[in-house]
Structures are given as structure tokens and as C-alpha cells.
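User: Predict the structure for this protein chain, please.
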Amino acid sequence: MKINEQKVIEYATPYYADKDIMHNMWHIELVKKKIDEIIANSNYNVNYEYLILATYFHGFIYCDEEGIKSWLAEQGYNKNDIDSIVKIAWESQRSEVPETIEGKILHDAHVLEGGRTYTVVKTLITGSVRGQTLKETLAFMKKNVLNTNKCYLPETIPICNEMNEYTNQFYDEIIKDIE
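Assistant: Here is the predicted structure, written as C-alpha cells:
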């Protein structure tokens, strides 16, 4: 089956409409861009259609898995297709190592979506949107962000390590300067 990306966008957009600026449809575009970079720099044999569908669904799979399954069935996908797409979407959300190559690619693209500095930017903006003070956001960063990003593909692991080092360095410098 050939993906009709416009239909997917129409279906997914309402789920992202009320999300903050770091988790809206622009986020999906960044993740897709990183997916394409990972695939271009590798020799993986992937089901690109499943991967792109899962990319759109990864941000709301946890709140409407049944709706996604129904929508995919309406689009003509069979149970095996649907199960595979849903599995890939879930694999980007979990801390365990994804089982499928598509899940690993989506997971790693999600982690690396905006490049080396993006974790810092995303954390600061998300904290601001939540109404947190800078100190509250930095406390969140220390507890939930520092050294937590992990990638699974050989070509993404060094990039992730560099991103984590940058995030740690940023945190150490700002904490030293504001305390």
C-alpha cells in the first residue's frame, strides 16, 4: 500500500494542535528529517511507509492507540500492517531497546531531532511553556534529562554522546553562574 501522507497529516494534526511548540507538527517534520538523514547514511532495509506512519502516530499512540488502529484499517491496512506500525510508534516512546530497525531509527531520530543543542533548547522552552522558573526547569533537567538520552544505532550513538556532553556542559555552566 502507498502512503497518502496528506491524509495522515489531516488525521494526525488535531492530536498535535494543543501541544507546545516543541511537540507539535513541526516536531514531526524535524523527526522525519532526521529519519531521512539516518537512512541516507546507512544501509538499512526498512519499511519506510510504516516508519513514516509511526512517526506521525508516536506523539499520541499512548492516548489513542485504538483510534489509530481503526483509522489505519479504514485506510486499507491489514492487521499485520497495523500491528507493525503501532509497534514502531510505541518503540520510539519506551526506554527499552526497540526490536525493529524501524523502531530504532524512529527512536534515535526522535532523540536527535534538532541536533546537538536541541535537548537544551527543548528543555528550556518546554519548562517556560509549563510556567516553570529557570531554577525549576534546571532542576527538571538535572533529574530527568541529563545523561538520559540514549541511541541504539552505531551511527547515532556518537552523535547522542556528543549531545549529552553538550547538555551536561551547558547545565554545569549555567548552574555555576546562577547559584
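The chain has a mean pLDDT of 92.
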